[in-house]
Amino acid sequence: MAETARVLCAEDDTSVRTSLERALTLEGYAVTTAVDGADALEKLVTLSPDVVVLDVMMPLVDGLTVCRRLREKGDRTPVLMLTARHEVGDRVAGLDAGADDYLAKPFALDELLARLRALLRRTSVVGAAATHHETLSLGDLVVDRDSRRVSRAGRELELTKTEFDLLELLVHNRDIVLSRELIYERIWGYDFATTSKSLDVYIGYLRRKTESDDATRLIHTVRGVGYVARES
Question: 77 with 70: CB under 8 angstroms?
Answer without folding.
Answer: yes
